[in-house]
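SAMPLE LOG
Freezer: B-3
Tube label: C17
Construct: single chain, 258 aa
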Amino acid sequence: MQGQNQQQAYDRGITIFSPDGRLYQVEYAREAVKRGTASIGVRTSDGVVLAVDKRIRSPLMERSSVEKIHKADDHIGIASAGHVADARQLIDFARRQAQVNQLRYGEPVGVETLTKEITDYIQQYTQVGGARPFGVALIIGGIVNGEPRLFETDPSGTPYEWKALAVGADRGDIRDYLEEHYDEGMDLDDGVDLALAALASVNEDRLTPEGIGVATVDVETETFGQLTDEEKETHLAEADLLDTGDDEDADEEDTEEE
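STRUCTURE (predicted):
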């Protein structure tokens, strides 16, 4: 009984390490990320690609209200997986920091700089009593001085840089697919095709334009932009990934997660 009580104490206290050096609330936050639908990032020589699974729980829901890809600045995009409300708070923080940098230094914020400002903010919530960690992971991609950069934020407040990555549900299977098919010499269109194929690999190799989101930041213009349904349909059709059957309502276990 005493051992169980001690376990519960470590379990509840975000600022308390367990005897084996673990912060259980941070680990639970990572589990919340796994319950969210998948988001993918791919870095290419021509730019970065962000692709997400946008599951619509009901045909009555407005598709535009399901937001998993966000513009942080003209040259930076962010994809999320996990709790929607937590993601929104971090996106708003990222946008404010981007504007502060522009006003203070007269230049766009660097992708790595913005990522570390976000992870520093996340890390504060692993040390303060009475708060909980953010139950969301972000993929941050952008262009700085003609160089594509791609980062991940973790609920612990740790940043990682990647060539290609996935967060959310089926992360392990998608990462295996990316590791097998990633080519550093691919262009932006190839990166879009790879991201869509990786997403389809855990969705019975079929996707609909309405059920996914895709955004790019290209080296030439250094501008964030999202693909239209027509552009997504073209990519899916060319890769033989287009689901031409009747759409089925997707089931989700938790209405607070995306």
